[in-house]
Amino acid sequence: MKKQVKFLVLAGLLLPTLFSACTATATTTVQGPPPARVEVIPVAPSVRHIWIPGHYIRRGRNYIWVNGYYQMAPARYRAWAPGYWRQSRRGPIWVEGHWR
User: Fold this and answer.
1) Residues of 32-59 as b/e, b for ≥16 C-beta within 10 angstroms?
2) pLDDT digits over 7-34, tens only?
3) Could you give the CA distance from residue 11 to residue 51 in angstroms, rounded to a whole number?
């Protein structure tokens, strides 16, 4: 009888802890990056330079801002396809921009 009472008391203390841990992980949401910053675009160094806009990259749980910059377009390419955020099962993923 004493063993059953000890077991019930122990179970009564542990069960709420276990259930609260389960509900905390079930309601966790993955947030996307903050809104993009407003950038002042300086004058291009030459006609062949194209502005690559700034964006956030994910480092662990934090987002780090990467400033925009000019890059000279390769000889075969004329346009820059900007990067974008894509939603996945693990949260938002940054897809790098590329030359077209």
Assistant:
1) eeeeeeeeeeeeeeeeeeeebbebbeee
2) 555 555 554 554 444 443 333 345 778 8
3) 62
